[in-house]
Write a structure and sequence with these properties.
The protein is mostly helical and 315 residues long. It has one domain (9-312). It has helices spanning 9-14, 17-42, 48-70, 82-106, 109-116, 119-130, 137-153, 164-187, 193-211, 239-261, 267-273, 277-288, 295-312, and strands spanning 225-227, 236-238. It has a two-stranded antiparallel ribbon with strand order 1-2. A hairpin with an 8-residue loop joins strand 1 (225-227) and strand 2. The radius of gyration is 19 Å and the shape is globular. The chain starts with 8 loop residues before the first helix and ends with a helix.
Length: 315
Amino acid sequence: MVEGSLPAEGEIRSRRPLLGYAMVFAATGLWGINGTVAKAILSTGISSLRLSEVRSTGAALVLVTALALTRPERLRIRRDELLFLAAFGIFGLALVQWLYFFAIHRLEIGIALLIQYTAPVLIALWARFVGGEHVRRRIWVALVLSLGGLSLVVDLWGGFSLDTLGVVASLGAAITFALYILLAEHAIGRRDPVSLVCLGLVFATVFWAVVQPWWSFPAGHVDDRVLLDGALVSTTLPVWLLMLTVIVVGTILPFALLVGSLRHISATRVGVTAMFEPVAGALVAYAWLGESLSAAQLTGGAIVLSGILLAQTAR
């Protein structure tokens, strides 16, 4: 349901906005951790395409196994769902993951995320001009505030370098992330969040298996050990363990949380709240990598939170 549409009375009663926001904040925190872990994996020579394939396939196997053992009826697919689930899996899951990994491999994580989080603007524009919904003026103000705050969080004004392919990938990630949220919102009334993410990941897995067959996977890198920086300095972990972290912490949990939040808050609000991810990433970098947080970054984080709160007041 996009901003401004009228939900049924029973749906209004079942909505718990505070829970919805908590789920989005939890998802952004997990994605903040995932960015640092993924960057470490990419440094070993594993490509962004392969990491995306591992992420989708591993998460699909875990979720399919869990549902098959507990609620197998949730794995059933109606014929009229096939095209939708394929689009959701390929464009909303497979490509958004790959484009993000490709972008952070060529750009600083903060810059890549700043570009990717123009996605909420695309969601609001879709709601207004395609969905024909009335998007409140304060939503637009909230978006401007949040983007302005993010530019401080990622230290945009302190100087940065851009890579053309990295920027293109970040813009592609913005489009596919917006598509992910809009498609999930469309389906959430007919499927529970876990089965929706699970089946989407199954289609993403099939897509990657066709694009790059598993028999060509560089298995030799899986046992490599990565030296971690910051708070975990002098600690080395095997690539397979970092991949497992990306699968569980960076994929299954946050995607399910984000889809589940759409039961309680609209796609526009979910998009604005998800803009907290770069702030979460900065906090992870502070706690894990020992990076300092300047007064400007802290101010930017406060501005992002103000934008999120302002979006909540747009009734």
